[in-house]
Structure formats: C-alpha cells, structure tokens
Amino acid sequence: MDLGIKGKKAIVCASSKGLGFGCAKALAEAGVNLTMCARNEANLLKSKNELLKFGIEIKTAAVDITSINGQNEVLKLCPKPDILINNAGGPPPGLWSDWDQSDFIKALEANMLTPIALTKAVLPKMIANKWGRVINITSKSVKAPIPALGLSNASRTGLTGYVAGTSRQVASHNVTINNLLPGSHYTDRIKMLEKNAASKSDITIEKVRENNHAKIPSGRYGTIEEFGATCAFICSIHAGFIVGQNILLDGGEVFSTL
User: Are 147 and 199 contained in the same domain?
Assistant: First the structure.
C-alpha cells in the first residue's frame, strides 16, 4: 500500500533504538525525511546510517528531548514537520510510598509536558498546511494500570486526557492526534527485565521469556517492525478519520472489551 507520505518531514523522538527506531524505519521506508533525536550520539548515528539506504534526508540531534534546550534544538532542525512522533522513556517502577512531589514532577515533565510542548509547537504549522499527524507512544498501562508503575500511569494518563480534547479541536484542519499503547515488545528494555527476573528467581532467561510469552494471548512479544508499521499507517493519508484514539499493540495482553 502506498501510504501517500513520501517526501513529508517527520520528527521522531527517542528514535535511536526500540519502538522509536521502529517508527523511524517504517517512515523511512515510506519515503519520509526524518529528524531523529536521542541522548546517545553513537547509537543515534548508527541508526541514521542504517536508514540512509532508503534514500531520504536525515537530520539528528543528540539531546535530552525532555529538556527545553533539547526541544528547541530539534525544532530548529525541523521547524515545520508534517509528522511528530512523541516518545520518551518511562519513569522507574516502585511503591506509592517511594515517590514524593519531585518524582511526580519529573515524570510529568517527561511523559506529559514534553509531548504537549512539542505538539503545541508544531500544530500551528500543520493547521496552516491543512495536514498533519501527531502520534504519542504511551503504554498499555493507560488502559490497564500497572501497580508498580504509578508514575507512568499518572503522567501518561494525563497526556491521554489532553489528546482527547485537543485532537477534536484540530481534526477539521486534517490534523490528527492519536496514541499508540505498546505492550511487551522485544526491545533492550525487555531484555534487561528478563535478565533481572532471571537473576532474582534463579532461573534461565529462556524460562523467564517462556513465562512472559505465556501471559500474552499471541504467545510472543511484539516486534519493533510491527509497531513501526502501525505507526506509519496512522501517519498515512488513509488514516485521516482516526482521531483521538488509543490503539493497543499488546498481543491481546490487556483483557478489555473496549
């Protein structure tokens, strides 16, 4: 399927690896020119070089996208994006008693206020162009809260509420805002969690993986390629009627009718 977005410009946050890279790769395959950012410059340049084979233009910024300086640098490289993919690592797990106000402020800044700031910065240009796509990578915990991830539950749910209203305000301009809610995908984070679980339980990593797969109706982890393909479709000319939605990519792990 021709996604109809060849030649458009996209900012893809935290795109040196994992789900962000999966989205960048899928957009690159569709012919979208990229502005990629991540904290680790070496990983970022490695990912850039991998995507240059698609014959697109790629700009990079080794920044912390949750900082104002980082946001300004990325927006300076791509002041008029057609597509914005918001993405940032989640806050650490813990108990309710572990967190104070500063922990919540940090989580809100990374997973709610940063995507809101970037969205506000690009919406005027998208509205003027009568075309735009904003996608926020959030989490399945928005749909089914994870007890140990209270900071993530709170901050990402706040972003979801913002999108619910704002997406309806800009939809008439052919600008859509939607959220992708990943479940368990085979990324470096999953590998780290498997290693930690194996060490704590004194079992093999393979056994941890087998146990995790058993909890997912699909019987496996998702891939970054699957995630990226979904992201690219939501960015396409064919998805203009999808507005303010929270799309689960979890292999059926979240048991919910709606």
Answer: no
Residue 239 located in a structural domain: yes
Asked if residue 168 and residue 158 are part of one domain, the reply reads yes
Domain contains 242: yes
Q: Coil, strand, or helix at residue 158? A: helix
Angle between helices 68-77 and 114-129 in degrees, nearest 10: 20
Q: Which amino acid does the sequence have at 256?
A: S
Q: Under a CB-based contact definition with an 8 Å cutoff, are residues 27 and 231 in contact?
A: yes
Report the predicted TM-score, pTM, of the whole model to 2 decimal places. Answer: 0.96
Q: Are residues 192 and 177 in the same domain?
A: no
Q: Is the pLDDT of residue 258 over 90?
A: no
Rounded CA gap, 44 and 59, in Å?
Answer: 10
Distance of CA 236 to the CA centre of its chain: 17
Residues 175 and 202 in one domain: no
Residue 3 vs residues 7, 123, 234: alpha-carbon distances, Å: 11, 21, 9
Q: Rounded CA gap, 132 and 173, in Å?
A: 8
- Residue 153 is predicted with a pLDDT of 94
The β-bridge relationship of strands 58-62 and 83-86 is unpaired
Cα–Cα distance for residue pair 37/64, rounded to 1 Å:
8
- Express each pLDDT in 200-220 by its tens digit: 889 999 999 999 999 999 999
Domain residues for the domain of 216 are: 186-221
As a whole number of angstroms, the distance between CA 88 and CA 123 comes to 20
